Amino acid sequence: MNELSLHILDICQNSIKANATLIEIKITDNSIDNVYTIEISDNGYGMDKKTLSEVADPFFTTRTTRKVGLGVSLFKMAAEMTKGNLVITSVINEGTKVTATFQKNHIDRAPLGYIEDTLCILILNENMIDIYYEHNVNNSIYVFDTREVKKVLEDIPFTDYNVIMWIKNNIKEGIKNIQKEESV
Q: How many structural domains are present in the chain?
């Protein structure tokens, strides 16, 4: 995968399959420590110890449609190629947390990509799941939370064109603003 946002989408799809009602995505871009971290956590049904120990194996999957599960193993490889790592913790009936750490300035670190599109795909396709997104650039923080947006929208659905375009632009501009703050 050429963009980290695609890895995020893949991990979030696992959260959806685990019946999560809340997915939290936190990105920390720390130039001072040269660390780029992506943390995805959910409140799904979690994994037992056996599944947790096998989940990063590309020849392990819980899917019945194919015999390989490359998503987690590719994310792990992307992190390790940049002198980072991938850590997964999970508790049955509480949820799962995936944390990928990258060396920020490593030549092999993929760009984040179009995270606003990734979030919009999740929001549009999974109306019953709330998404909390936090982007931190050297302690300048942008937050987007579907629970807050739902309060404002009341009965207007996320599928309304004007709503989803506002969400996409809000996320894009919010990230751009915290990146600008850092460069000033």
A: 1
Query: Is beta strand 140-145 parallel, antiparallel or unpaired with respect to 85-91?
Result: unpaired
What secondary structure, in 3-state letters, does the chain show? CCCHHHHHHHHHHHHHHCCCCEEEEEEEEECCCCEEEEEEEECCCCCCHHHHHHCCCCCCCCCCCCCCCHHHHHHHHHHHCCCCEEEEEEECCCEEEEEEEEECCCCCCCCCCCHHHHHHHHHHHCCCCEEEEEEEECCEEEEEEHHHHHHHHCCCCCCCHHHHHHHHHHHHHHHHHHHHHHHC
- SS3 of residue 14 by DSSP: helix
Q: Whole-prediction pTM value?
A: 0.91
How many Å separate Cα 136 from the centre of its chain? 13
The tens digit of pLDDT for each residue in 102-161 reads: 999 999 999 999 999 999 999 998 778 999 999 999 999 999 999 999 999 988 999 999
- The domain spanning residue 99 has which CATH number? 3.30.565
How many other β-carbons are positioned within 10 Å of the β-carbon of residue 37? 18
- Look up the domain containing 32 and give its range: 4-183
